[in-house]
Amino acid sequence: MNMVFKRELFNPQEIKEMYPASNEGLEAKKLNDKEIRDVLRGESDKLILIIGPCSADREDAVLDYIGRLRPVQDKVKDKIVIIPRIYTNKPRTTGAGYKGMLHQPNPVANPDILKGLMSIRRMHVRAMNEFGFSCADEMLYPENHHFLSDLISYVAVGARSVEDQQHRLTASGLDVPVGMKNPTSGDLSVMMNSIRAAQGSHTFIYRNWEVESKGNPYTHAILRGFVDNYGKTHPNYHFEDLIMLSRMYGEATSLQNPAVIVDCNHANSDKKYLEQIRIAKEVLHSTRHSDEVNMLVKGLMIESYIEDGAQSLGGCVYGKSITDPCLGWEKTERLIYEIADLR
Known about the structure:
The protein contains ten helices and twelve strands. By secondary structure, the protein is of the alpha/beta class. The chain has one domain: Alpha-Beta Barrel (TIM Barrel). The termini are far apart.
């Protein structure tokens, strides 16, 4: 094999014992999990809002951001369920670039997976213990989910991973909601097949064990726009797109808890981060004009941080994204209150 085996890492249980969640944090997670499931089941008319940095790049700024969300959540708790984004690993189209805190707990230093595992565990623990938020993360590497399985309330499977068998089977064995993004090509049938697979039960290999999953009834769709054969981005959040997805769910009668989260950034905004404000409001406008759409749309996904925009890797602006551009805090706070008023 063309690999250098550098060192054996701690197993998930060892990492969990190093950075345990508090009893209060675990109780908060139980309440968060119930609120999210109630929305996806249609037993609550609150809106899920998955919001935060494109990538978690440094613990202090991420926790500063999450601390700012806490009083906002308390003010809009009757309308919105906030799930902060702590995305600790990032897919790279060409393989080059910053791959997230799992790889580089210090973005400008060399990769160090062992330190990365400890840093991402500690950050998620602090978010839960100190602020009562059990957060969202992307499942880029299915075998790594177990390191954070007691802390996370929402998992996203990205556009480049949604066709992968191991992602689908692992999602079927998780006990938290999993959002399946449409692939970069925009083929919604791929996304729907992924949801169907994840809602079923399977026997497969996971972390060197033969396991049997029970199926995840809270697996659902995320619309994030797409890129055509000529590299041009196209949105799929408009009223007609939501109606089409609702009809596709209607034809897939075996699927439980039909739901969609609309990603307001990525190809939906052509990565023009300020467009997220308009897109969020347009989606809410669509829900007011169709019961069918209103029943389907369960939430929004927004990329935001402390400062507007993005900076290059190694930039020194505190709280500014080093990957995709994000909404800054002032615009974010205002938008959350506007969403609550429109709900």
